[in-house]
Amino acid sequence: MTTLQKGDKAPNFSAHDQDGNLHTLADYKGKKLVVFFYPAADTPTCTTEACNLRDNYQSFQAHKYELLGVSADTAKKQAKFKTKYDLPFPLLADEDHSVIKAFGVWGPKKFMGREFDGIHRTTFIIDEEGIIDEVITNVKSKEHSAQILK
Fold first, then answer.
1. Is residue 51 flagged as an active site residue?
2. Averaged in consecutive runs of 10 residues, what is the pLDDT profile of the chain (150 residues)?
């Protein structure tokens, strides 16, 4: 789905999190960043993925990674999701799809025989200089931390 690849410059993005705080790519210069896109907050597979990242958050910190979750949910829904599952990382509320489209993860999907446009579950690992180090398109929700930290 995405045309971004390892070695590409990460798109400049700007979006507010569940608390209204603005996040941009520039905020993470000099830091390793994991940006994970998920279809919808508080749904079974997205919850499994987010909780797997939460449960391994100390490992991410030990490897000096920052994490950002992104979906098209409202800030209110993202806040409920973050609180309900005690998620230690910001969740961007990308209601206008600007970040989602910049990373190229919006497009046609099939679910239960039905076709529709939506977010493709994809994770980008971005280095300290804003260059994409890895793109994970085959996200395994229960093992996602291991996919990133390998």
1. no
2. 88 97 97 97 96 98 97 98 98 97 92 87 97 96 95
Range of the domain at 137: 30-149
Give the pLDDT confidence score for residue 112 in this predicted structure: 80
Asked, for residue 75, whether it belongs to a domain, the answer is: yes
Q: How many domains does the chain have?
A: 1
Cα three-residue angle 50-51-53, rounded to 5 degrees: 65
- In-domain check, residue 61: yes
Q: Exposure of 37 by Cβ count < 10 A (0-12 exposed, 13-18 middle, 19+ buried)?
A: buried
Q: What is the CATH number of the domain that holds 125?
A: 3.40.30.10
- Indicate which residue of 15, 33, 34, 46 is catalytic: 46
Query: What was the pLDDT predicted at 3?
Result: 80
